[in-house]
Amino acid sequence: MEKVAVYTGSRNLYKDMVTCAKSLIAHSDVEKIYFLIEDDELSLDIPDLIETRNVSDQEYFDFWGPNMKSKFTYFAMMRAALPKEFPELDKILSLDCDTICIRNVSDIWNLPIGDSYFAASKEAHRSVAGMLYTNVGVALMNLKRQRETKKTDEYIDILNRQQFVYLDQDVMNYLSQGYIYDMNSEFNANEWTNPCYNPRIIHFAGIKADVWHKHPKAKMYQQMSWDEVFAEQKRNLMYPD
Length: 241
Hints:
Blueprint: E1 4-8, H1 14-26, E2 32-37, E3 50-54, H2 74-77, H3 82-85, E4 91-95, E5 99-101, E6 118-122, E7 134-142, H4 143-148, H5 151-159, H6 167-174, E8 180-182, E9 201-203, H7 209-212, H8 216-223, H9 226-238
Parallel strand pairs: 1-2, 1-4, 2-3, 6-8
Antiparallel strand pairs: 4-7, 5-9, 6-7
Helix pairs in contact: 1-8, 1-9
């Protein structure tokens, strides 16, 4: 499989993961979606396209590590360990649980990332002194490249030794300079990436859940049945925008 995606989250994010995955399926030809969660099973209804994986016993990040008491859970840091979690995959699309696809994104897996460690959208205000800083809430991860260069080990090692504000996002950006593909912000439209007037993915970064849940597109996928999701996918793939 070449078109694989992953969402990670603790129990309070399960419903959001389902909502976001519905939007991705409706607007892409994704072949497989993984949910990395803290339970053996998900109590919510999901199709066979989605597979859950309990990572509560993960051994990548020390329970007493400097970033374990962050406002973000260790599930955020799992992004830095994806090459180890999925040794059979060359690449994977990682998405936060507050991202809603609103237009076809099937071609995101075909971005020419080459030797880049990942593709993500630039945050201009943090890209200073010649450094490219990106928002990895939507990131096409080059798992093969990260494994080959042992970059994953570097990410994990420093996360276990040093405290960061934005955890894996900070580390991935700081340790990957020169090997980050600057992805068009249409794939990650939020208040920090470059302005985008016709986005494909809306990222509600920094917006409280009880606010973004009321967004018309979010509400639509919250309420949509799986039959309706796959019917919309069929229509969108037949008549792509």
